[in-house]
């Protein structure tokens, strides 16, 4: 039996609390920028992130706040 493909990551799914963190690749796809630009923004501190070993993760609550999506959720 094959693995079922996951649904694409959307802002709505993040607002529903399905994930605590996302990867840099998922962030780049979510906001529509290249992976290289996303990595550069994370390393420059322009995007809230956590470094765990060699991995960078983006905390969803801080990302939603940065994108102004928390206000949309409250309405």
Task: Give a description of the structure.
It is a single chain. With 75 residues, the protein is an alpha+beta fold. It has one domain (17-74): Arc Repressor Mutant, subunit A, CATH 1.10.10. It is built from five helices and three strands; from the N terminus they run H-E-H-H-E-E-H-H. The protein has helices at residues 11-15, 24-31, 35-43, 60-67, 69-74; strands at 21-23, 50-52, 55-59. Strands 1-3-2 form a three-stranded antiparallel β-sheet. The longest helix has 9 residues, at 35-43. It is globular. The N and C termini lie far apart (42 Å). The model has no long low-confidence stretch (mean pLDDT 87).
Q: What is the strand and helix layout of this fold?
A:
Blueprint: H1 11-15, E1 21-23, H2 24-31, H3 35-43, E2 50-52, E3 55-59, H4 60-67, H5 69-74
Antiparallel strand pairs: 1-3, 2-3
Sum this structure up briefly.
With 75 residues, the protein is α+β, with helices and mostly antiparallel strands.
Helical fraction: 40-55%
Give the overall pLDDT as a whole number: 87
How would you spell out the order of helices and strands?
A: HEHHEEHH
Give the CATH architecture.
Orthogonal Bundle
The radius of gyration is 13 Å
At CATH level 3, the topology is Arc Repressor Mutant, subunit A
Unreliable spans are none
Distance between the termini: 42 Å
Biggest sheet overview: 3 strands, antiparallel
CATH class: Mainly Alpha
Amount of beta strand: 5-15%
């Amino acid at each position: 039996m094959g693995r079922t493909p996951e649904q694409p990551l959307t802002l709505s799914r993040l607002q529903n609390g399905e994930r605590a963190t996302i990867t840099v690749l998922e962030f780049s796809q979510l906001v529509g920028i290249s992976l290289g630009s996303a990595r550069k923004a994370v390393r420059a501190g322009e995007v809230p992130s956590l470094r765990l070993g060699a991995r960078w993760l983006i905390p969803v609550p801080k990302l939603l706040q940065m994108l102004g999506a928390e206000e949309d959720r409250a309405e």
